[in-house]
Amino acid sequence: MNRENVEIVRARIEAACKRAGRDVNSVRLIAVSKKVPAETIREAMALGIKDFGENQVQEARAKIASGAFAGARVILVGHLQTNKASLAARLFDEVQSVDSLRVAAALSKFSVLYRNGKPLPVMIEVNIGKDPAKFGCPPEEALSLARAILELPGLFLSGLMTVAPGQGDPAVSRKAFRDLRLLRDEMISRGIPRENLQELSMGMSSDFEVAIEEGATVVRIGTALFGPRPK
User: 0.90 exceeded by the pTM?
Assistant: First the structure.
């Protein structure tokens, strides 16, 4: 793990917060550890990183079983299939990729079964740019999905997540991130409690600074921390 990468990312987060007039502590860094070996994860933890994002349930399961994440929070940021909901409810501290009522209902069922009364924090993944290559619920369905999740036991809705359309062009991303923030504000105005939409998870290695400027409370960074991973 390159200490300099961590320092550079933290400095960029701080600078973006300063430009936006925000407290640096208002932004949570998730280190996306897809295809990152356990040894590197432990090195990242030694450098103060405590939140890790995983894209695939099976890969995360193996790493968790190895003890790689001992003392850390593990968050699912990749697409979740309904048939993996049982594992997800047991493995993860948070699931940011709920994109349908079917997935939410499955997580609810298994959270009630396995989490001993501790609600599973979830976010709604919104395909804010309606990009056919991206997962996420359509923006116009986010309000009804949020209302449904609020009725499900075993889950705590904490906010919205998105992946910007395109190839990380900051100008394209900025519009998407602004649109997600405006969608959040509209959902609050239409009756979703503010406490259930506190979080905006948006921004990755190529565009996290504009995400922060547009209101991100969570950024999900992989390559800028760990370097390129194998395909």
Answer: yes
